[in-house]
């Protein structure tokens, strides 16, 4: 008998993880961007590559876009292209971090004309969402200051709220805004949306269609991220995840690579808090593959999320609750660790085969010849937008 119950398998069957279009482009650090043979030359090819990840895993049904990195003449054609390849277009990410006008802020800027330019960019992103059928507008702001006294911290919060209100007012009935936080970088003294509390305060005063986005890489070392996940789910304000791994800063490495136990703990709170398969909680990756091939990098990523979700699902919650109630610290910890140490990979491989998928998606992709084909066909792949 499988260690995964039929209820567990039914929950896993529903799992869908959005892939970032930018994961398929070349990226790097400020020191060097290494090109990878076969890198997509445009958004059409990025989506074709993302569809490969879904083909081998059935885990990645949507692709998130970043505007203007993914600007095309016709977003309805891009949507059709995606749908023809068996995926949909997901979250639309705005970008107010690569324009000289935004040196001292965008939605928080002192100058009303620059604020309006940034607001208009977000309204244009909502136009894109109308064409792509995307539900979520994801806003991450690179705004802040480097020196104490440089900026009026409070005035910036007020302006941020006013700007967000104008963006929020343009959302359709079925559309949402998710506000991502990050504790530092590119500003180093203060960031205007540094933490979940600020994001929560800003979105709560907007309304029900505004939620918090939690990027796992955007916390100080030692932060108890699963506690934040629990709290946001408890408050009904966790809109989405940007999954990735960090060792030092905002490393954007493969989710679950740096700390699989942390990913397990996060996913346990997701399962515990009703966030798994809850349509209000979008699972996304926000990663870059600087030195590894991008498609297998994304396959590895979604499999890591699936594996840790399966482990989180098999926690004996009744035994855990009993041990917690009776104050049996070590028994409670043992129940938790038993699930974490359970190797679910053979059971998942078996289940995959029963669904007509390859037992080992990494091997199946490697054997497919797709990587060699794109390396031969594509010359001059584009950069993801980062690391210039
Ligand atoms: C910022 O560090 C961030 O996490 C935001 O989500 C951006 O849109 C994304 O990275 C780009 O990779
Ligand atoms: Mn992010
Ligand atoms: Mn980031």
Automatic annotation (TrEMBL):
* Record GO terms (molecular function): L-rhamnose isomerase activity
Q: What is this protein called?
A: L-rhamnose isomerase/sugar isomerase
Q: Which NCBIfam families match?
A: RhaI_grampos
Q: InterPro entries from the xrefs?
A: L-rhamnose_isomerase, Rhamnose_iso-rel, Rhamnose_isomerase, Xyl_isomerase-like_sf
EC number(s): the record gives 5.3.1.-, 5.3.1.14
Enzyme type, top EC level: isomerase
Per UniProt, the keywords (alphabetical) are: Cytoplasm, Isomerase, Manganese, Metal-binding, Rhamnose metabolism
Organism this protein belongs to: Microbacterium phyllosphaerae
Q: Report the PANTHER family cross-referenced here.
A: L-RHAMNOSE ISOMERASE (PTHR30268)
Q: Give the matching Pfam families.
A: RhaA
């Amino acid at each position: 008998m499988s260690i995964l119950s039929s209820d567990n398998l039914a929950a896993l069957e529903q799992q869908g993880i959005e892939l970032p279009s930018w994961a398929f482009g070349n990226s790097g650090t400020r020191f060097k961007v290494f090109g990878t043979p076969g890198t997509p030359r445009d958004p059409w090819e990025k989506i074709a590559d993302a569809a490969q990840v879904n083909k081998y895993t059935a885990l990645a049904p949507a692709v998130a876009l970043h505007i203007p990195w993914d600007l095309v003449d016709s977003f309805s054609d891009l949507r059709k292209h995606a749908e023809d390849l068996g995926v949909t277009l997901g979250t639309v990410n705005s970008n107010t971090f690569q324009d000289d006008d935004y040196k001292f802020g965008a939605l928080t800027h002192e100058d009303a004309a620059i604020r309006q330019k940034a607001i208009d960019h977000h309204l244009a992103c909502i136009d894109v969402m109308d064409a792509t059928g995307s539900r979520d507008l994801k806003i991450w702001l690179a705004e802040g200051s480097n020196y104490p006294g440089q900026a009026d911290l409070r005035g910036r919060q007020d302006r941020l709220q006013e700007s967000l209100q104008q963006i929020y007012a343009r959302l359709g009935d079925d559309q949402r805004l998710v506000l991502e936080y990050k504790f530092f970088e590119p500003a180093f003294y203060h960031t205007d949306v540094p933490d979940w509390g600020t994001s929560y305060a800003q979105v709560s005063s907007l309304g029900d269609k505004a939620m918090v986005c939690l990027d796992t890489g955007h916390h100080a070392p030692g932060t108890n991220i699963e506690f934040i996940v629990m709290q946001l789910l408890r408050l009904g304000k966790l809109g989405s995840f940007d999954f990735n791994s960090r060792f030092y800063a905002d490393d954007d490495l493969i989710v679950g690579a740096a700390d699989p136990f942390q990913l397990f703990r996060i996913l346990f709170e997701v399962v515990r808090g009703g966030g798994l398969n809850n349509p209000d909680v979008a699972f996304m990756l926000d990663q870059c593959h600087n030195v590894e091939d991008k498609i297998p990098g994304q396959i590895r990523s979604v499999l890591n999320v699936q594996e840790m979700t399966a482990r989180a699902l098999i926690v004996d919650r009744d035994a855990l609750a009993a041990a917690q109630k009776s104050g049996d610290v070590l028994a409670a910890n043992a129940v938790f660790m038993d699930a974490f140490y359970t190797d679910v990979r053979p059971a998942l491989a078996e289940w995959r085969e029963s669904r007509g998928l390859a037992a080992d998606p990494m091997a199946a992709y490697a054997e497919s010849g797709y990587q060699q084909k794109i390396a031969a066909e594509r010359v001059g792949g584009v950069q993801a937008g980062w690391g210039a």
